[in-house]
Amino acid sequence: MKPVVGQRIAEEPCQECLVGFGPEKIRQDFPALRVTVHGKPLVYLDNAATTQKPQAVLDAVVRYYTQENSNVHRGVHFLSQVATQAYDGARTRVRRFLNAAHDHEIVFTRGTTDGINLVAQSYGRKYLRAGDEVIVTAMEHHSNIVPWQMICDEKRANLKVVPITDAGELRLDEYERMLSDRTRLVAAVHVSNALGTVNPVREMIALAHARGVPVLVDGAQSVSHAPVDVQALDCDFYAFSGHKLFGPTGIGVLYGKAELLEAMPPYQGGGDMISAVTFEKTLYNTLPYKFEAGTPHIAGVVGLAAAIEYVERIGRKQIAAYEADLLAYGTELLSAIPGLRLIGTAKDKAGVLSFVMDGIHAHDIGTILDMEGVAVRAGHHCAMPVMKRFGVPATARASVAFYNTRADMDALAKAIHKAIEVFA
């Protein structure tokens, strides 16, 4: 079955999508994958934290700094024009990547966290009142919890939390029940970083819109796994980070519907976000520059554009199908290991295998796996409420990308058996 654009990542591998897909060739594009760890080849399975960068992205960033380095929107000289063209061209590429309607609906940020904070501090500060409600889910990353707590505390509004099942799936019935005349915004993750759950965001958005409630989607874990179409979703805001999409750190994107962004005040002041300044009054710039104060991360934007071009050249449907196959294989391997329990067994998942083991702390698992050359994440994954929901202090988390292979999954399982031997 093919992935459904804008909603599900993939229910099962799409075999026709895998024809011609060559992960071994792809791996050659990533210099970091040739690193050895403790004398062993690196098996990198920490992609939910950050992805490795292809040579094409590294080359784009180096080329900018060595041949095109200049500030944007500020000069008439040659280098400034070249840099500005690259910067503005990247916005168009992102717009097409998300299938947004207009370039000016794409705001460059420092990352997903920055984008969510922008909406909380701008939209939230303008529209929230005492007694109003913001709805999040029980599987959110801290970056989609804390900003709403902060603005709700300031405005004396209430934060409501949609519960999840033992499988890590959203209680859609409870969500629908929680929507009310007091709901001012829904902020929900597309793909859980701690569980891998793919939320039914299209249905969530439709239910919210039926009550006139806008929806922000945290897309940090989704854009690298499958196509995302913001117009098909009809979401009001969508945020993601470049470094989880094989691009540089410190750069991200906030998509927002133009009519909402137009009505929102800027939440940072400085250069380029203005059209005129006097000591009596400042007139703000047009979209999207109103929300891009100061010198932007130009090299990051250039690198992000290169990353998107690289991903699109491989094919997002092909990536989704390949990763679904890899995830199914890894799930089967880990499920067969005695004493191992997967945390997050939703029907619709993407890229994440979180697990705990009898008698072995997650950090100890991570340490032993590292000695075997296998890089996973161990901890609460900035999702402490998720850990509390499942009654565990932490999990070990293996997360895949399209450059991972079944051999990587085999190495993971072998390293886990090594941990069992150590603690036997």
Note the main attributes of this structure.
single chain; 424 residues; alpha/beta; Aspartate Aminotransferase, domain 1; Aspartate Aminotransferase, domain 2; 7-stranded mixed beta sheet; 14 helices; 38% helix; 16% strand; disordered N terminus
Write the layout of secondary structure elements.
Elements: H1 23-27, E1 36-37, E2 40-41, E3 43-44, H2 55-68, H3 78-98, E4 106-109, H4 112-127, E5 133-137, H5 146-155, E6 158-162, H6 172-178, E7 183-189, H7 201-209, E8 215-218, H8 230-233, E9 237-241, E10 252-256, H9 258-263, E11 274-277, E12 282-284, H10 298-314, H11 316-335, E13 340-342, E14 352-357, H12 362-371, E15 374-375, E16 377-379, H13 384-389, E17 395-399, H14 406-422
Parallel strand pairs: 3-15, 5-6, 5-7, 7-8, 8-9
Antiparallel strand pairs: 1-2, 4-10, 9-10, 11-12, 13-14, 14-17, 16-17
Q: What does this protein look like?
A:
By secondary structure, this protein is α/β, with parallel strands linked by helices. It has 2 domains: 15-53 and 316-422, Aspartate Aminotransferase, domain 1, CATH 3.90.1150.10; 58-312, 3-Layer(aba) Sandwich (Aspartate Aminotransferase, domain 2). The protein has 14 helices and 17 strands. The chain has helices spanning 23-27, 55-68, 78-98, 112-127, 146-155, 172-178, 201-209, 230-233, 258-263, 298-314, 316-335, 362-371, 384-389, 406-422, and strands at residues 36-37, 40-41, 43-44, 106-109, 133-137, 158-162, 183-189, 215-218, 237-241, 252-256, 274-277, 282-284, 340-342, 352-357, 374-375, 377-379, 395-399. It has a 7-stranded mixed beta sheet with strand order 4-10-9-8-7-5-6, with helices on both faces. The longest helix has 21 residues, at 78-98. Residues 1-13 have low confidence and may be disordered.
